[in-house]
């Protein structure tokens, strides 16, 4: 909002009306234009997820990435997967009712 009206009005006035400190505004501008330092790792995570059809969680993805020779912490993989909205598919077990014979109990004497 402030960046859009910056050409028409003084920055100081806009920041006062918005109640935003100048340092915060400058920090956010720099953060938006900054390059994503985990872009390569995110792409690697997506590749592993697609290879295994979304069945791998963060532990197995971490193991697969480490197997390729990239040193990475499991917590970083978990955080990036949460940011990207990736979750492992949890397969439900097939229901198998017990079909054994009846059990005879001995009488209490």
UniProtKB/TrEMBL annotation:
| Pfam families named among the record's database cross-references | HTH_21
**What InterPro entries does the record tag this protein with?**
HTH-like_dom
Q: What residues does the HTH-like domain cover? A: 41-94
- Name of protein: Transposase
Species name: Neisseria weixii
């Amino acid at each position: 909002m402030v960046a859009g009206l910056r050409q028409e009005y003084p920055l100081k006035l806009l920041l006062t009306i918005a109640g935003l400190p100048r340092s915060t505004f400058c920090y956010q501008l720099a953060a938006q234009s900054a390059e994503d330092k985990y872009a390569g790792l995110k792409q690697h995570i997506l590749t592993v997820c697609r290879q295994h059809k979304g069945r791998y969680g963060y532990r197995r993805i971490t193991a697969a990435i480490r197997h390729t020779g990239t040193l990475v912490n499991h917590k970083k993989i978990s955080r990036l997967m949460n940011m990207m909205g990736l979750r492992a598919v949890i397969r439900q077990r097939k229901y198998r009712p017990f079909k054994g014979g009846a059990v005879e109990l001995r009488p209490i004497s």
